[in-house]
């Protein structure tokens, strides 16, 4: 079912101690300030080594959830340095970010690998937050829709209807990530509507209307309200601003 979600992707930031302090500030502020029938789900995605401890610090409420930033496509075994979906599940993770542009770009994750990772995540009962998004070059060449359509088709739409029900999509224009250059709310809405249309074609109208589609790319306390007011924007995947408790809380309050 479609939910409003604000997910904080800490990327490779914070130490263990700083991470614990940050999550404690966030949970206190959110509990104090976000009252009433606010349906926003908050997903905290810290680095792997802090997952278990941060998971324990999340209040036992249905609002807070733990997420990982990546996971192996392999189930278990001799894969030095890898972390499996089952391991993530065993420390309390519910979500896993997959296909982030930084993974695609710096670690050469392609559609084939991402398809395997998706299967592994779903098999462990976790929910993927599957990222798509175009480069500046692609946008300037007017190829945004073709490019994103292909990312969805090749990377995601091989899933069965039942598998797809677990998926959250994040639209993250690469040119907006960490640049301070946010997509306008109209640009975000246009792509989100396109993604929803593609889901309806690949699955059906119900799947399209039930899928949460998050925006990511320099979202902050100032622009979140405008972005989240768009009919097809169901929340955000927040990088830089998720490392500041006040900013992250304000983003959560922007619904
Ligand atoms: O996963 C988060 C996105 O890459 C956005 O990062 P940012 O908010 O720092 O631009």
UniProtKB/TrEMBL annotation:
Where does this protein act, in terms of pathway? Carbohydrate biosynthesis; gluconeogenesis; Carbohydrate degradation; glycolysis; D-glyceraldehyde 3-phosphate from glycerone phosphate: step 1/1
**What catalytic activity is recorded?**
D-glyceraldehyde 3-phosphate = dihydroxyacetone phosphate
Enzyme Commission number, as recorded = 5.3.1.1
Tell me which domain of life the UniProt entry assigns to the organism this sequence originates from. Answer: Bacteria
Q: Which UniProt keywords apply?
A: Cytoplasm, Gluconeogenesis, Glycolysis, Isomerase
Which positions make up the signal peptide? none
Where do the annotations place substrate binding? 9-11, 178, 218, 239-240
Subcellular locations according to the entry: Cytoplasm
Q: Where is the active site?
A: 100 (electrophile), 172 (proton acceptor)
Which NCBIfam families would you find in this protein's record?
Answer: tim (TIGR00419)
Question: Could you describe the subunit structure of this protein?
Answer: Homodimer.
Listed PANTHER family: TRIOSEPHOSPHATE ISOMERASE
The family line of this record is: Belongs to the triosephosphate isomerase family.
Report what the protein is called: Triosephosphate isomerase
